[in-house]
Amino acid sequence: MFQPNQIGKLFKLTGRDIHSRPSYAPPIDCPFAPVSLAVSTEKTNVRADSSASRGSADELIAKSKILIVPRIRPDFEDRFEHLGIHYRVVAIHPRYTVTGGLDHFEVDLEVQPQ
Cα(109)–Cα(36) distance, rounded to whole angstroms? Predict the structure, then answer.
């Protein structure tokens, strides 16, 4: 049986503005249980010919997974916030009990640029 132990904020995607930036509804409290919320930085190439110049930049990487209560239905591209870090929903997997009832949603997240 799934038991949430944290509270995050879920922002439902409502559309895009004329510059194609996402717009969101007001946040709702989202009880969840973290499976993995690892956030790290990696060096990335910033130039095509970087072998000689060694040009690189730091990129924030997160491959995160959380479990969300079934009464809140996340959608792709929704925004999730926890501890000041903004994530974007990239995958949703419904998980069921042995008797066939919806138990929770397993949600994969990636860091969203601020």
Answer: 10
